[in-house]
Design a protein that fits this description.
Shape: elongated
Radius of gyration: 16 Å
CATH architecture: Orthogonal Bundle
CATH class: Mainly Alpha
CATH superfamily: Winged helix-like DNA-binding domain superfamily/Winged helix DNA-binding domain
Number of strands: 2
Strand content: 5-15%
CATH topology: Arc Repressor Mutant, subunit A
Order of helices and strands: HHHEEH
Structural class: mainly alpha
Distance between the termini: 41 Å
Strand order of the largest sheet: 1-2
Number of domains: 1
Length: 109
């Protein structure tokens, strides 16, 4: 998984996994969250998802936080560092949209 953190750009998969973990969630819940929020445009396979989870845990952006009650499903949550990274990505995307809107809407001048 590529994440150009220094440049501020995250992959779409990384960003959505992080967003899914603003509340503790397990793997299947993350997949459902992403599919629902993107109206089915982004559907992750188990290998992609668990590769992303392992990568984000190793970066310290998300962390295991126990198990779902009554289940053996491992829960994950976003860390404070992860929240800062996600907030920077949101700012970057908003700036990108502002620039694109300015160019596209101003293209008739």
């Amino acid at each position: 998984m590529r994440d150009n953190f220094r440049g501020g750009a995250l992959t779409e998969t990384t960003f959505f996994v992080m967003l899914a973990l603003y509340r503790p969630n397990h793997g299947y819940g993350i997949m459902r969250f992403i599919e629902e929020k993107t109206n089915g445009r982004l559907v992750l396979g188990a290998g992609t998802l668990y590769g992303a989870i392992n990568n984000l845990v190793s970066k310290g952006w998300i962390a295991p936080c126990g198990e779902e009650p009554g289940s053996a499903k491992k829960l994950y949550t976003i860390t404070e560092t992860g929240r800062k990274v996600a907030e920077r990505e949101l700012e970057r995307l908003m700036e990108l949209c502002d620039i694109a809107r300015e160019i596209i809407e101003g293209s008739g001048d």
